[in-house]
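Retro notes - structure team

What went well: the batch runner handled both jobs without manual restarts.
What didn't: labels got mixed up in the shared folder, which is why I'm recording both outputs here explicitly, each with its sequence directly above its tokens.

Job 1
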Amino acid sequence: MTKKAAPKVGRHVLWFSWKLVTFFCIAFSLVALFRLHLRYDISSSAVSRTRSRIHYDGPAKIAFLFLARRELPLDFLWGSFFEIADVENFSIFIHSAPGFVFDELTTRSKFFYGRQLSNSIQVAWGESSMIAAERLLLEAALEDPANQRFVLLSDSCVPIYNFSYVYKYLMASPRSFVDSFLDRKESRYNPKMSPTIPKGKWRKGSQWITLIRRHAEVIVDDEIIFPVFKKCCKVGMPVKLSRRPPLDARKGKMNMKLQKQHNCIPDEHYVQTLLAMSELEGELERRTLTYTLWNLSTTGNQNWHPLTFSYANAGPQQIKEIKSINHVYYETEFRTEWCRSNSIIVPCFLFARKFSRGAAMRLLSEGIVGTFDTSTLLDQSS
């Protein structure tokens, strides 16, 4: 009986040894992964700190960041806007279709020559590529330490004040202007984003933001929130389609399921959510500087669509009404956001969208932005 007990003890010792070896292998792997992650975080933070430590004493610039499909149809208006500005006070960056070049053949304004990004990507509406393009613009603009304010604009945006007013308005405030509010009505939050993005930090707002340099760095350096949006916001919808699929009588009850699908629309949530998770909401003016005239669809699915300003409705009276707005009401938070700069009530908007070419010509002819002979445009068109 004693001779038979020895093999059992040996098997027990062997089993325990394998268990111990497995434990140490797993522990070693976890420690290695942790050190690798820590090294990456330190490296990423070092880049941000190095960028922040750059001391700059010269004139502060506003970086105008244009997110365009291809060309800039309102380049003639922006050219007039920049014409009366000091070149030391602004810079221009354009994210356009990959390979598109701004030169004397593709733009009417010399200010846009060669200002396209060399690393632009193909952008699909409703997907993370939209915010990836925004990050590329910010990253390029941050290379210049003189850039202290960053304004994101679409190819249909127009200024409603001259450059001097815009510059003084932005430089007078130490805050970013980011439209941000709790999203209580729409079911865009995807539970799969948890726990990285808790629902309590989910925010919504306008894509058209204006940032101070430190907040721009937070967005460019983010390696945690952006991958979640990239993973969970894969809609694959063409740019001109609506935010939800159209109703199809043949699908019956399936329509309701399709309407409630988690369509993140990352450009309306990413920056707002990231800044909320970074505990930076206290450093924001929680409003956009870009006016949009919305039309509520009457189809019953609560789709909002921005109206396009034409020549007929872009006159002095309409622009005056936009300039007179000094507060914004947020229904989901029962909050009135008064538009302030250093505690002084100011007009809410510096820019507006969506403007047609004719509407932009009227702004110039009325002298709202600057002086310009619009007849030269008519000659070019003919």
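Job 2
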Amino acid sequence: MVGWAIAVHGGAGVDPNLPAERQEQAKQLLTRCLNLGIAALRSSVPAIDVVELVVRELETDPFFNSGRGSALTENGTVEMEASIMDGPGRRCGAVSGLTTVKNPVSLARLVMDKSPHSYLAFSGAENFAKQMGVDRVDNDYFITQDNVEMLKLAKEAGSIVFDYRIPKVCGTGVQSPIHMNGLPISIYAPETVGCVVVDNEGRCAAATSTGGLLNKRMGRIGDSPLIGAGTYACDVCGVSCTGEGEAIIRGTLAREVAAVMEYKGLQLQEAVDFVIKERLDDGKAGLIAVSKTGEVAYGFNCVGMFRGCATENGFMEVGIWG
């Protein structure tokens, strides 16, 4: 028996001028989700069920960029993606290009449990959702007025960087300070959500869900549904990442945490620190992690990361800044 541990995140990359009211709303949501997971763990719910439960709650609340409240594509619609992974046996499921599924993380779970595959996308994923009878809604359900206004600003200004909800207009002809794959991008919305858990049996699990980049091209897939990049769990640890998806993909960030623990013998926080420092190149990102021994850790190299964590021994922390 080991002590349980849980961590949640609501995205890395926070505007330093984020109003105090918005900061408090974020902390309240993270605290609510932590308490939901803690109650389940105290009732001996397995880790895989806890991560799904918590991420469903984050998807249902429109505050962060997942499920309802997802960032809008260049066409003003929502395309969502998610993944989930169970450490024992490294079982996993992932989905992309969802437009009607109310809780993408639960469809990812069904891909893992009820299909011979690990990853379904776009029309194939939607058809699978119909077959499984999951809750489905019109695309309008996911669209919030805040995100409609943000997309309008993005298209009008042509060069805006969004770190959370506060836009910075970089006038016409001014190069964006954010780059992906070496190219400047005009829109960045890093509010992915995720949860990692280790239960009393030492079983690790991880789940991640997002609406992706604001004003992204139709069909763009980020790191969140990619096993080993945005999400990973094994018999050593569970990891969920957030931030610049292209950088996370190149660094196989989530798997790298497990790899350096296995092959370099690092402890969890040491592994997280190493990966954030050595595997992101010029990218900006963050991650949360738990180990099979009940440790919890996080790290990020950007201004802030919405996160919370708790352990069985009574430790609990919810924060945004470094």
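One thing worth noting from job 2: Confidence is low (pLDDT under 50) at residues 159-177, 183-188.
We'll revisit the folder naming next retro.
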